[in-house]
Amino acid sequence: MPRGGELRLGRSGSWAPEAAAILADEETVSARHATVVHTAEGAAWVTEVAQGATNGTRVNDRVLVPDRPVRLRNGDRVELGPRAGFVVRGIEAEPTDPPT
């Protein structure tokens, strides 16, 4: 994902067109589940969508609070519900401020 980009994660083809093709059959992933932002400075943040992720989102077993960004680091495991997830790779910088 390029710097300055945002990726929506969910099963909705209109809301998350890039991820929906992969997640469409994952019943435990919500239509509008979470977003990942890769800032221009090189940090990455994941945010669970408020009133979206029925089965929750976790980073390294930490349950996310909707609408509160969590900074991602290399090697972090992000789980969308109990059966779908990914490991973070390629983070270069470690700024501390969440995206606005």
From TrEMBL:
Segments forming domain FHA: 7-64
Domain of life: Bacteria
Keywords: Phosphoprotein
PROSITE patterns on file: FHA_DOMAIN
Protein name (record): FHA domain-containing protein
